[in-house]
Write a structure and sequence with these properties.
Layout (H helix, E strand, L loop, with lengths): L2 E4 L2 H6 L4 H14 L1 E5 L4 H14 L12 E3 L4 E5 L9 H4 L4 H9 L4 E10 L18 H6 L4 E7 L10 E3 L26 E5 L4 E3 L8 E9 L19 H6 L2 H4 L14
Parallel strand pairs: 1-2
Antiparallel strand pairs: 2-8, 3-4, 4-5, 5-10, 6-8, 6-10, 7-9
């Protein structure tokens, strides 16, 4: 199942999750491998990020940009984005509602290991069922191991039956050998302003885009500092962050990007 946690007016005012919602969201992510947090970003922030994705990367609507992007399915592209402008706001990359859940599940030493967008064009077909990264250990240990990476997904248009969504197979992060042919799944409607947190090991499938809209999905990978995802980033850069944008960050947020010191101002 997919647990959905709504941010309350009191939490919006405090800019922090209640202890109860933090516990519920963290438990859902550990148990099911996924959780949705509703209303974590303002609609105008989402609109600004959507405009930036399309303005910065217009070729994504037609073809690949080999230097920063790769094809990840039929009419579906993955591209590294510069962590600047609306993406450089801590409301996004250090979201006050998602970050405590991520730290509770991944650990206090977690870093941001990758950032970009997966853009599904009109007419994009279903992806194959996959996980973002295989388990690092054998089956017995994997069931006991905490998440080594979690994706913070932010849709920039509503995910629904028309635009398409991400089909989830809850629990498969702890049982990666499970045959999903007849396994229960969830096709969530994800409203604009909400986010999906998903364990890297969870089996899932991007569904077809039957609308006339370009469907951008932002991904930010929160991970253990010793992990690097060479499977998905053999060619696509992990992230793009300049010295100037790093210097503008608050000290408390720089630790999330400390590993990038030798790679800023380039494509890594």
């Amino acid at each position: 199942m997919l647990i959905s946690v709504a941010i309350t007016p009191a939490e919006q005012t405090a800019r922090a999750l209640s202890a109860e919602n933090l516990a519920e969201a963290s438990r859902a992510l550990r148990t099911h491998g996924c959780v949705m947090l509703r209303d974590v970003l303002a609609p105008e922030h989402i609109a600004a990020m959507r405009e930036e994705v399309l303005a910065r990367n217009p070729p994504l609507q037609r073809a690949e940009r080999p230097e920063i992007s790769g094809r990840v399915g039929n009419r579906r592209f993955m591209a590294a984005l510069e962590l600047s402008g609306p993406f450089g706001s801590p409301d996004f990359f250090a979201n006050p509602f998602a970050l405590p859940v991520l730290r509770a599940v991944v650990g206090p030493e977690m870093i941001i290991g990758a950032f970009g967008a997966v853009t599904s064009l009109p007419g994009a077909q279903d992806q194959h069922v996959h996980f973002d990264g295989p388990p690092l250990f054998n089956k017995a240990i994997n069931r006991l191991a905490p998440a080594h990476a979690v994706n913070f997904f932010v849709p920039l248009v509503e995910f629904n039956a028309s635009t398409g969504t991400t089909r989830l197979f809850p629990g498969t992060h702890l049982d990666v050998d499970r045959d999903v042919t007849s396994a229960p799944f969830v096709d969530p409607i994800i409203p604009v302003g909400s986010c999906l947190l998903m364990d890297y090991r969870l089996k899932h499938q991007g569904l077809a885009n039957r609308s006339e809209l370009v469907r951008p999905l932002l991904y930010t990978v929160f991970q253990q500092p010793w992990f690097k995802d060479y499977k998905n980033h053999g060619r696509v850069p992990f992230l793009r962050l300049s010295d100037a944008d790093y210097a503008r960050m608050a000290e408390e947020h720089r630790a999330l990007f400390s590993w990038t010191e030798h790679y800023r101002n380039g494509l890594y």
